[in-house]
Amino acid sequence: FTVKTQSPSAAMSSIAAVGESYQKFNPRAYLQNNYMPPRADFSSEDCVVPWKLRCLAEAFATGDIHGRTLIDIGSGPTIYQLLSACDHFEEIIATDYLEVNREVLRQWVRGEPDSFDWSPYIKHVCRIEGKGEQWKEKEQKLRGKLRQILPIDVHQPEPLGSQLCQPADALVSTFCLEAVSPDRLSFERALRNVTTLLQPRGHFLLIGALEESFYLAGEAKLSVVPVSEADVKEALSKNGYHIHDFRSYLMPPSLKIGVDDVSGVFFVHAQKQPVA
Ligand SMILES: Nc1ncnc2c1ncn2[C@@H]1O[C@@H](CSCCNC[C@@H]2Cc3ccc([N+](=O)[O-])cc3CN2)[C@@H](O)[C@H]1O
Predict the structure, then answer these.
(1) What is the pLDDT of residues 67-110, one digit of tens each?
(2) CATH number of the domain to which 172 belongs
(3) ipTM of the complex
(4) How far is the CA of 66 from the centre of ligand 1 (A)?
(5) Is residue 67, in this structure, part of any structural domain at all?
(6) Which residues make Cβ contacts (< 8 Å) with residue 3, sequence separation at least 6?
(7) How far is the CA of 145 from the centre of ligand 1 (A)?
(8) Which residues' Cβ are closer than 6 Å to ligand 1?
(9) Residue 14 is assigned to a structural domain of this protein
(10) Is residue 21, in this structure, part of any structural domain at all?
(11) Global confidence as pTM
């Protein structure tokens, strides 16, 4: 019985390979695959996008998650994951590894005409939050709070380099860690690295893919480390988190459209335990 341990150099080369594969990532194709119909269908609560938005809205509706700054880890070219957060934080910091994604986010913040239309998402979140908020208000509020869009590499012990002045009050991350980690060990290390960005007792809302091994983004075919519910729970516990809520969504056959082999989506509301 031999334990397969990776030598540091082997781990480095597979992480370098991930970074190389992302050079072909096409944000427009990625948005088309995951954030347009059929996956973005707001007519049914059974659809995956409304399910994700409801998980986030309900977590923030508890009133337990608030503070000065929230960091979104591996934002990609999307902002939907911040719509319910923006009422509870003064500043929201978006991050991504690729300049093309950071530029897509900046275009949206600037309200450029050809940027991605998130209005169906904003209208849906205003509806399910039930505060009678006008969607244009929420759009402007988020634009006003999204003041920093920073480069990040979750495989670095200091993922934001020396840019971060102090740990954030909360973290959000959607579909990033498993999609940038070659294996479970590097997934756990990436979680350890991003945890340094969070205050003790800070909250972490994590959404990700279950048992996914690849996804497409235009020319790019990206590898994903398949993780199960148990893998995610174990990684969080190993990194000193208490899990308040864990939910899973089973991808219906109608949403298995060939852009990935994801079998489900998980949502976790976890809290970083203070070191005793
Ligand atoms: N080293 C790094 N550190 C931080 N971020 C990094 C690093 N490398 C790449 N990145 C950055 O992380 C990436 C985040 S997008 C990852 C996509 N994950 C898979 C995809 C997502 C998805 C979405 C929605 C649904 N659904 O059913 O609704 C299913 C699925 C399943 N497929 C990308 O922005 C890259 O630019």
Answers:
(1) 999 999 999 999 999 999 999 999 999 999 999 999 999 999 99
(2) 3.40.50.150
(3) 0.98
(4) 25
(5) yes
(6) none
(7) 23
(8) 22, 25, 34, 39, 48-49, 74, 76, 96-98, 101, 152-155, 175-176, 179-180, 209, 212, 215, 260, 262, 265
(9) no
(10) no
(11) 0.96
